[in-house]
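Ticket #4471: structure export looks truncated?
Reporter: QA, pipeline team
Priority: medium

Steps to reproduce: submit the single chain below to the structure queue and open the exported record.
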Amino acid sequence: MLRRCVSCRRLCDRTLLWRVVRQADGSVSLDQGMGRSAYLCPEPSCLEEARRRRRLQRGLRCAVSDAIIASLEARLE
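Actual output as written to the record:
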């Protein structure tokens, strides 16, 4: 199944993308759970663009904590 990166807007298979999920209780988690999802390419340029332009916040329609961004940055290494 194809999904679109919120940053670069490229269509990719969803297994190649990171999934950020807004849970029903309003919390945000990575990769698992049910709720509104936003997908992001696992590349530094996409992560930086998403952070700078607040693409995850717009895609999920909620605030995304710095801890989630830091977790994604840690995955890059």
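Status: closed, not a bug. The export was complete when the record was re-opened. Leaving a note from the reviewer for reference: The mean pLDDT is 95.
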